Amino acid sequence: MFFPLWRKNTLLNFIHMSKRIALFPGSFDPITLGHLDIIERALPLFDEIQIAVGKNSEKKYLFTLEQRVDWIEKTFSHQPKVTVITYEGLTVDFAQKQGVNFLLRGLRNPADFEFEKAIAQANREMVPQLETVFLLTSARYAYISSSIVRDVYIHGGDFKSFVPESVQP
Ligand code: ADP
């Protein structure tokens, strides 16, 4: 069908604006089955999910940024709706730069809730149009955290049942 150029651009802008894009920020040091569960369950809710791996000079990571990114890319290599990017600085600034309209976070327990609530409310104060969406973790993954995985790994234990298959340090 023939469309004048200006109409085509308006149409494209409209399609882009109405896309639901979520940013899932985190350390992913390393990615766990808990993260995977949140992302897989969020896929039907969004057109696109950008997994944003943080590099914060104040934080001590066990695995390098390249390694953390590589494991996530391998985990989602079959999923065209998922992209993996790195970022530093304020999450809301990065979200605006990326043009996303949602932040995605997972909740495991009341401690997560209290922590995430404060961050989401502060983010909302700074960028009101950026909505944070929380998904409750599936009960069977609620006990898993990257810090437990790191601890088991450091002490030579078997961590395979906590992480996606692609995580092979
Ligand atoms: P951060 O350093 O930002 O806390 P994490 O990688 O630890 O980064 O967590 C990123 C997000 O994933 C957070 O919203 C966290 O609550 C969520 N998350 C972490 N582990 C799990 C899990 N087992 N189940 C569900 N969500 C989780």
Overall average pLDDT: 92
CATH architecture: 3-Layer(aba) Sandwich
Please, how many helices? Answer: 6
Into how many domains do the coordinates divide? 1
Quickly give the structural class.
alpha/beta
N- and C-termini, Cα separation: 52 Å
Strand content: 15-25%
Low-confidence spans: none
Largest sheet: 5 strands, parallel
Which strands sit side by side, in order, in the main sheet? 3-2-1-4-5
Ligands, ions, cofactors: adenosine-5'-diphosphate
Q: Can you give the helix content as a percent range?
A: 40-55%
Order of helices and strands: HEHEHEHEHEH
- CATH topology: the name is Rossmann fold
> CATH superfamily, please?
HUPs
Number of strands: 5
Q: What would you say about this model in short?
A:
This protein is α/β, with parallel strands linked by helices and 169 residues long.
Give a verbal description of the structure.
The protein has 169 residues and is an alpha/beta fold. The chain has a single domain, classed as HUPs (Rossmann fold). It has helices spanning 5-17, 33-42, 65-75, 91-98, 110-126, 146-154, and strands spanning 21-26, 48-54, 82-87, 102-107, 131-136. Strands 3-2-1-4-5 form a five-stranded parallel sheet, with helices on both faces. The model has no long low-confidence stretch (mean pLDDT 92). Bound molecules: adenosine-5'-diphosphate. Adenosine-5'-diphosphate (ADP) is lined by residues 26-28, 32, 34-35, 38, 105-106, 108, 112, 137, 141, 144-146.
